[in-house]
Design goal:
Elements (H helix, E strand, L loop, with lengths): L1 H5 L22 H5 L76 H22 L1 H10 L17 H13 L1 H9 L8 H9 L4 H23 L8 H16 L9 H20 L2 H20 L6
Helix pairs in contact: 3-4, 3-5, 5-8, 8-9, 9-10, 9-11
Length: 307
């Protein structure tokens, strides 16, 4: 729902007429971790115009921030299994994942293309920092100054929450990442690394998009945490959570939020996926509805309503 709705893994389709370059891999850790390593990947920056540029009248200044999302779910952390932030860099073998990677340029949504480019930039930034001892030490020295206690880790296609943790962490590291870009010529990086940093630098529109994505996905993240509990039944709660998410996505009445038109576009993209994966699946919906009724009656009888 989330990955396909917002285009987390959308990338530019490679031209079939272009020659395929042979690549070699190495298991030499010293070579991989070397600061002299050319840390390139499949990112293609600059091929897609920023979708936010079309709504320049709604771009906030850098010092403006989005309001915190309302608490849609009452969660007791003692009763919830928290998903480990450590993301998986490689997908499990034989795992079939229905994640869209390529969009038809004639029919694809430009905002999904933009989000895909922003996500690739974020992944490239994390790769570059984690594979460079110079950048890693630079970041470690700055973390206490900005009171940061989490690490930067990559996401994977099979867990949308890992992508949520990725851009959440990138936003946490915003000041450090901007500082790296402003001082890249003075921290002993080689030419390839400087060029790479310049090509994946997040601009104001990219940062604003990350803030908007975090805001619109906060209720979805809360719902995921709610239905991950191990000390109470969760099938019935999922019915409640899905309709709370749909209600949030259908709300287009708040015009006080910066970039509200872009935010509502993001909501509409997610709402289509909620309809597709949950509402249109009548069999699944009926099962969740029955379980929700049983859970509600059980909670009343035992005077222990948990939601």
């Amino acid at each position: 729902m989330v990955c396909n709705g917002l285009g987390f893994w959308v990338r530019s389709k490679q031209d079939s007429s272009s020659p395929i370059l042979a690549t070699t891999s190495t298991n030499n850790k010293d070579e991989v971790d070397s600061d002299e390593q050319d840390l390139t990947d499949d990112i293609q920056v600059g091929s897609q115009p920023s979708s936010i540029n079309n709504s320049s009248n709604f771009i906030a200044s850098p010092d403006q921030s989005l309001p915190m999302s309302n608490e849609y779910f009452n969660i007791n952390n003692d009763d919830v299994v928290i998903v480990n932030e450590t993301s998986i860099n490689e997908e499990p073998n034989n795992l079939s994942i229905d994640v869209i990677e390529y969009l038809d340029p004639s029919t694809g949504d430009s905002m999904q293309q933009h989000i895909g480019e922003v996500m690739k930039k974020c992944r490239s930034i994390v790769k570059l920092i984690n594979k460079s001892s110079i950048l890693m030490n630079y970041v470690l020295n700055l973390k206490p100054q900005f009171n940061i206690h989490r690490s930067l880790q990559l996401d994977c296609k099979s867990r949308w929450s890992s992508s949520y943790h990725l851009f959440e962490a990138v936003l946490t590291y915003k000041k450090i990442i901007n500082k790296i870009n402003s001082e890249k010529y003075y921290i002993n990086l080689n030419k390839k690394q400087i060029t790479k940093l310049s090509s994946i630098e997040l601009d104001q529109d990219d940062w604003k998009m990350l803030e908007l994505i975090e805001f619109v996905l906060k209720p979805v993240a809360d719902a995921t945490q709610l239905v991950s509990g191990s000390k109470y039944p969760t099938i019935g709660i999922s019915y409640f959570a899905i309709f709370q998410i749909r209600e949030f996505l259908e709300d287009v009445s708040d015009y006080t939020i910066n970039d509200w038109q872009i935010l509502y576009h993001l909501k509409s993209l997610l709402l289509k996926q909620v309809q597709k994966y949950f509402i249109d699946n009548n069999g699944q919906l009926e099962i969740m509805k029955v379980r929700f009724c049983f859970l509600f009656l059980y909670s009343i009888e035992n005077k222990s309503l948990i939601f």
